[in-house]
Specification:
Shape: rod-shaped
Largest sheet: 4 strands, antiparallel
Keywords: Membrane, Transmembrane, Transmembrane helix
Protein name: DUF4446 domain-containing protein
Oligomer: single chain
Mean pLDDT: 84
Number of strands: 4
Organism: Candidatus Giovannonibacteria bacterium GW2011_GWB1_44_23
Number of domains: 2
Helix content: 40-55%
Distance between the termini: 96 Å
Strand order of the largest sheet: 1-2-3-4
Radius of gyration: 40 Å
Order of helices and strands: HHHEEEEH
Strand content: 15-25%
Length: about 160
Amino acid sequence: MNQLINLFDKYGVYFFLGLLVLDAVILIWVFFLRRNFRTIFGDSAADGVDLEKILLELRRNQNISAANFDELKKRTEVLEKALPKHLSKIGLVRYNPFSGAGGDQSFALALLNEKNDGLVISSLYGREMNRVYAKPIESGASQYQLTEEEKQAIQNAK
């Protein structure tokens, strides 16, 4: 016991200086925590607003945001699946199939989706008649024979 008292007498000053430095570090740490607390929760948090209420409100908002995100994600997936099916590529060629008729009043119109599926509509206009044809297109080609104008309309749509 006598040795312990001698050690304390000899190194006690250093022990208390160490505690003083530790107190200063803790005081600085508390100061930064308080500043961060005010930054996060605003000045109203320092005025006695219940931290538990604030945290519950944040959690409630987080749950709402997560539910909204999930809903938007599902809607986006539906749109991404449907998008390739919609007609988004259009090609038009106007031409004159008959030398006696005036103007380029006949046309070939290609309507394709992202996969180059769709249809081509052709209209042959003459003085005494008008004929309209529709041919399905799959992957940019048709099972029916295509005219040069229809092929050009499909190429314009791609």
